[in-house]
């Protein structure tokens, strides 16, 4: 049984949401998990770094 749960991460600076299921148009393919996002990746909207993002609690 495989349960695929993706997480969303939100930029604390501009509220851009990174969706693991969708990736990022700037170069991250859909399904890229947060730990796999390169450390030099930055927010496409404001240029914030990975550590400026917070995990969003999944909806229940
Ligand atoms: Zn941002």
Radius of gyration: 11 Å
From the 3D coordinates, which CATH architecture would you assign?
A: Single Sheet
Quaternary structure annotation: single chain
Through-space gap between termini? 20 Å
Low-confidence parts: none
Q: What is the fold named in CATH at topology level?
A: Rubrerythrin, domain 2
Strand order in space, largest sheet: 2-1-3
What's the level 1 CATH class? Mainly Beta
Give the biggest beta sheet: 3 strands, antiparallel
Explain the layout of strands and helices.
Blueprint: E1 8-11, E2 17-19, E3 53-56
Antiparallel strand pairs: 1-2, 1-3
The site of zinc ion has 8 residues, from loops.
In short:
The chain is an all-beta fold and 60 residues long. It is 0% helix and 18% strand. The protein has a single domain, classed as Rubrerythrin, domain 2.
Structure description:
The chain has a single domain, classed as Rubrerythrin, domain 2 (Single Sheet). A three-stranded antiparallel β-sheet has the order 2-1-3, with no helix packed on it. It is globular and about 40 Å long. By secondary structure, the protein is mostly beta strands. Helices cover about 0% and strands about 20% of the residues. It starts with 7 loop residues before the first strand and ends with a strand. Strand 1 and strand 2 form a beta hairpin. Zinc ion binds next to loops.
List keywords for this structure.
three-stranded antiparallel sheet, globular, binds zinc ion, 60 residues, Rubrerythrin, domain 2, 0% helix, mainly beta
